[in-house]
Amino acid sequence: MKRVVVGLSGGVDSSVAAYLLKEQGYEVIGMFMQNWHDTTGTLAGDCPWHDDRMFAELVAKRLDIPFHFIDLSDPYRQRVVDYMFSEYERGHTPNPDVLCNREIKFDAFLKAALDLGADYVATGHYCRSDEIVADGEVHYRLLAGSDPNKDQSYFLCQLSQKQLSRSLFPIGDLLKPEVRRIAAEQGLATAERKDSQGICFVGKVDLPVFLQQKLAAKQGDIIEIPRDLRKYSVANIPDRQLKEAVEPIRYSPFDGVKVGEHNGAHFFTIGQRKGLQVGGKPEPLFVIATDISNNVIYVGQGDDHPGLYRSVLPIRPDEIHWVRPDLALGVGESAPFDVRIRYRQPLQRATLVVTPESGYIRFATPQRGITAGQFAAWYSGEELIGSGVIDR
């Protein structure tokens, strides 16, 4: 009998994952991981970890499976939270959930599960996996979840073949209403519990307050940029001009007019609307650029302000990751993919171009709110092929 350690989070998805695996004949062990202790910046009433653990224990008891607790807060701080702080300090917008999966759930947690004699770890992610044989080798595929409203494959875009070989996603073929129905039928305590939100294992936070643990507040100017400023990037950029086209637009205070002040440019991200506290405009203001060195935020009126859009983005050369290494592009090669740069964004047609100095993603249509530090994930059909960190 194969042994599986399920990461019981105290939510309905992992609870049903454990139930399904037991029904399929696996020896199931439930394990709850605590990854965060500090409540600085956490919004009141946001499901503190001790409530999560209580629900996880109730589910394990109901399913009659062993329950274990593990504290992974040290590696989580070192490998996820410290990375977050360093990226925000540079003016980047990281995705801690992607890092949490790569570094904690499918690394530190996986190692702890293997120490318990597990053959696999399982989570409640809405994604699927399978294996194929090509040229005599086994390749593990990461596939989108069957529920189009809950597909979470993007969050796993940095997993390796080794990690996928040890991973199970029992609810990937189900729709969310089905998961809740199963939980209710089995009398699981999590059946009606709300889904968690916010930073992985930290919860919903007031981001500036959270970041001020390490990043000091500093007053600076908010400069509004008019729509007709001729600095905006264009579409249909040929390969030979990609290197020049990816450079973000550089504004100066002389390009616009001061409309307010802020408490730190590193607390803001491209496309952000909330927190500017500048009113009296015909249309809402959105952040179109940040200058961390000079502590200036540049904004524009309207969701369709051209400064919000870019057609080409660069991927850090050392940050191009292939979930399927056998399908990796070599230098000088290009291929069409469907790409997303954030969770739940509809897939966008694009071409990935690999050059000696970088990787470039050229979109068929300009994309809103591209920000350095985000992960871009590229798909072929329903399979996630690779991903990378947006460089600038």
List the helices and strands and how they pair.
Blueprint lengths: L2 E5 L4 H12 L3 E8 L14 H15 L3 E5 L1 H17 L6 H20 L4 E3 L4 E8 L2 E8 L16 H5 L1 E2 L7 H10 L21 H5 L8 E5 L17 H4 L11 E6 L22 E7 L4 E6 L7 E7 L5 E2 L11 E7 L7 E7 L4 E10 L6 E6 L2 E7 L3
Parallel strand pairs: 1-2, 1-4, 2-3, 4-7, 8-11
Antiparallel strand pairs: 5-6, 8-9, 10-11, 12-16, 13-18, 14-15, 14-17, 15-16, 17-18
Describe the overall structure.
It is a single chain. With 392 residues, the chain is an alpha/beta fold. It has two domains: 3-210, Rossmann fold; 216-392, Beta Barrel (Elongation Factor Tu (Ef-tu), domain 3), CATH 2.40.30.10. 22% of the residues lie in helices and 28% in strands. It has helices at 12-23, 49-63, 73-89, 96-115, 161-165, 176-185, 207-211, 242-245, and strands at residues 3-7, 27-34, 67-71, 120-122, 127-134, 137-144, 167-168, 220-224, 257-262, 285-291, 296-301, 309-315, 321-322, 334-340, 348-354, 359-368, 375-380, 383-389. The strands form four sheets. Strands 12-16-15-14-17-18-13 form a seven-stranded antiparallel β-sheet. Helix 1 (12-23) links the parallel strand 1 and strand 2. The longest helix has 20 residues, at 96-115.
